[in-house]
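Table S4 entry, Zn-dependent oxidoreductase.
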Amino acid sequence: MGAGMRAIVLDGPGPPEALRIKDVPMPEVGDGWVRVKVQAFGLNRSEYHLRTGVATNAKFPIVPGIEAVGTVDAAPGGEFPEGRTVVAMMGGMGRTFDGGYAEYTVVPASSVIPVRTKLDWATLGALPEMLQTAHGSLYTGLDIRQGQTILIRGGTSSIGVAAAVLAKEQGLTVLSTTRNPARLGALRELGVDHPLVDDGSLADAVREIVPDGVDVALELVGTNVLPDTLRATAVHGTVCFTGMLSDVWSIPDFYPMAVIPNGVRLTAYGGESSDLPAEALQRYVDLVEAGRLPLKIHRVYAFDEIAEAHRVMEAGGAVGKLVVRVR
C-alpha cells in the first residue's frame, strides 16, 4: 500500500488556489474507525464556507470534504469487510478530522454506510450528502405527505435538485426557483411542476399558483429571503431552513411576530448521516441505477482540478452536483 498518499490540504482560509495537492502520510486507523480508499467525492457548500473562513469550527491544516465514496481498505473493529463498497459522510469529516478530499480517508464506523450498486464512481459520489440533506429536510424537517404542495427556494443547487426529485417521487406538487431564467428548462426536465424565477420577492407569484400558500417550503437561499418564503406558506404550513446559498446566516434584530405569519411553522435541518437510514440510501441508489430518480451531475472534475471546481461552486455556476474523481 505504501507509506504515503495524495491529499488536498487547506492550510487556512483563502481563494480556491489555497486548496493544494500534497503528498502526506497514509492515515492510521484504529478500532471503531474505517479507512476508505476514496474513488470520488462530491463538493458541498460547507466546504466553500470552510475555505473562505465563514466556518469557524475547523482546525488547520485540514483535508476538507464532508463526504466520499469508495471501498473499505481497513476496518480493525470488523464492522465492514475489506473491499466493501461504502459511502462516508459527516460526523466531523473535514472539520474536526481530515475528510474526503484525499486518496484515503479515515472516518468513524458510524459515518460509513455500505451500498450495493453498479453505478459508476462519479455518479455514486454525487449522492451521499445530497440525498442525506434532501431526505432529512423533507422527512425530518418538513414531514412531507403525498398530495402536498412544496416550494423549494434555491432549486438549481444540488440539494434543491435532489429535493425536487424526491418530492416528486413521493407524490408532491413542486414549485422550485432559480435566479437565472435560462435554467427554468433544467427545472422542468427534473419534473418540477412550476419553475419560478426568483427576484427576491416570490410570495405573490406563489399564491397566484397556490392561493392559500404552499403546504411546505424548503429554504436553501438564506435568511435574506426567509420572511418572503414564510409569506408564501399556508396557515399551519411549515418552512424548513436548511441552506444558506446567499451566505446570509442571520436576521438582524429578529422579532418573530414581525417575520413569522400567524399559524406558519418555522423549523430547521442540519442533520447527520444517521438521519439517512441505510435502507433508504440503498433504495435511492437503486432508483438512480434504474433511471427512475433523475438526479443531476453538473460536471465531473479530475483530482487536480479542485481549484476550478471550487471556483464554479463559489460563482453559483452549477445546476446540480459537482463531483471530483480521485482515481
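The chain has ten helices and 15 strands.
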